[in-house]
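Lecture notes, unit on binding sites. The following record was shown on slide 14. It pairs a sequence with S-adenosylmethionine.
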Amino acid sequence: MDGTEPEDWPGVLHREGRTLCRLARDPSESGTGPAAKGQGDVFHNPAMSGSRTRSVLLLQHCIEEGLLGNGSIYALDGLSATGLRARRWLNELPAQSATRISATMGDMDPVALSWAMKCHEEFPPEHGKGELLPHLGDLRKSVLEHGRHWVDIDPYGSPLPFLDTAIQSLARRGVAEISATDSAALTGSSKSALLRRYGARVRTDGLAHDSGLRVLLATVARTAARHERSIEPLLSIWESHHLRVSVRVLRSIERANDVEDSLGWRVASPTAEEVSSSIESGLQPETSIDTLPMHCFLPLSHPVNRSDKRISGPMWIGPLGQTEAMVSMTEERALELCGPSAIEDDPVGWSERDFEYERRKVIRSVRHISEEAGVIDAPHLILVDKLASWLGCGSPVSPNSMAEILRDAGYRAAVARYGKPAFRTDAPWNEIVSASIRGGDVSNG
Ligand SMILES: C[S@@+](CC[C@H](N)C(=O)[O-])C[C@H]1O[C@@H](n2cnc3c(N)ncnc32)[C@H](O)[C@@H]1O
């Protein structure tokens, strides 16, 4: 990387979470989407800051729970650009976790790696622990040069070109974090791209982003199965322009053989017969079917007509996350690890208000995740606006009220962290209908 000093260096000083870095230009001037990438620029997307915060929290959870063994942890930020993700791992994890980490930042752009290493040299982890190495090259080849416990893939567009080798590079027990910005394909707007890349169909309704996450998980699960591994989703998030799944990957032929048990279909406006099949397959609880639900899951073995516009899939129909991992993502924990404290004569020039703004951003990045933890395996994700129009019962009841009414009735229910007002619950459909009527009565006085 010598001799490739970035042209724009030293750029502007910036802080994300508790970590200082330099960027070619001021991120506040580039709005919420990816900063326009001119030739020679190192890519930085301020809209991914929440994803980087959650990455720090998830890594800490997995270390604390012993999911990554007891020795050194080899972690790869596979498409690292500015290297901010790997640098945040090292700087924001507590010293006793960071000290176990040997992180590699990989990128095929020498300017990006040079930029990342210069940031690391200027702002090393505050506690001085952990190791950070650059690796120049094409990730599709370089990822197999070393076994890893943690692999992060954050590409432009689809993660598919990197998936196969990334899974193979994982140790017996490891974690893969995978972003996809080809959300138009995954959520069914680009139908041919979705079919070509992921072999699936997604109905472009209110649940399209949940379906997109599940199609991505199904693809990761099938890739893992080809390499005699199984997955356990830890966290699945839709945020602005991207979808991201974090999964535990375990080597196990037996569990890999069972991959199809976790795959299936989502049917919109299901028939009574489809709802009965869903119940018989254990994909939702018994319900009277006087009013039919808006959606239901069916197992992969259920015959479906692929040209039926109501059908989405094949997709992952198991839990989208792991309860323990999600419970650990509280606002307090996020602030403790990633929230910056105001300092006098801040080199970035932040006022007390700027620090407070960043702390609020850190809190927002985990909003609703720990609440949703207890229902992440639940069969129903319900958008309250759609529910009200489906039932023809006036204005929607808030997700919070719906969750409260259902919990009072003895079911599991919580507000969902979804880009639209929604809740998840394990309640039977007929109970959701009566909760909505009760909620409507209360709000109408
Ligand atoms: C979307 S950016 C990564 C953003 C970064 N993870 C973050 O959090 O800011 C994608 C990066 O992947 C790099 N890249 C693209 N194709 C690659 C490949 N085949 N091998 C290695 N790096 C690649 C690009 O140079 C770019 O820096």
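Take-home: The domain at 379-445 is CATH 3.30.56.70 (Phenylalanyl-tRNA Synthetase; Chain B, domain 1).
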